[in-house]
Amino acid sequence: MEQDIVIDTNQLGEDIVKVLKTIYDPEIPVDIYELGLIYDVMVNTDYEVKILMTLTSPNCPVAESLPQEVEQKVKALDSVKAAEVEITFDPPWTKDLMSEEAKLELGML
């Protein structure tokens, strides 16, 4: 008798973060997760993912392509059934959202 494979949503969340850390803002040599562009990652029990993110500015040159890249890379994870990226500018992104690692990388510490 086959059992359904149970996927740990916490582990899936960690896997999603690993993927997000491979995506870089083309203007800043730091990944979008460390930059603080990811506001929330939600995974439901059906393994559907919703990512709430922002951009460094509303006029960001990758406003079209960056969210698509995030969605495609997260969808590519085996255990993800669907992925949706929502862009918000509330609250607006500031340098305060960057991780210590990102600030160090950019010489801001």
TrEMBL record:
Stretches assigned to the MIP18 family-like domain: 14-86
Domain of life: Bacteria
One Pfam family recorded for the sequence: FeS_assembly_P
InterPro entries (alphabetical): Fe-S_Maturation_MIP18, FSCA_dom_sf, MIP18-like, SUF_FeS_clus_asmbl-assoc
Official protein name in the record: SUF system Fe-S cluster assembly protein
Organism: Flavobacterium kingsejongi
Species lineage: Bacteria, Pseudomonadati, Bacteroidota, Flavobacteriia, Flavobacteriales
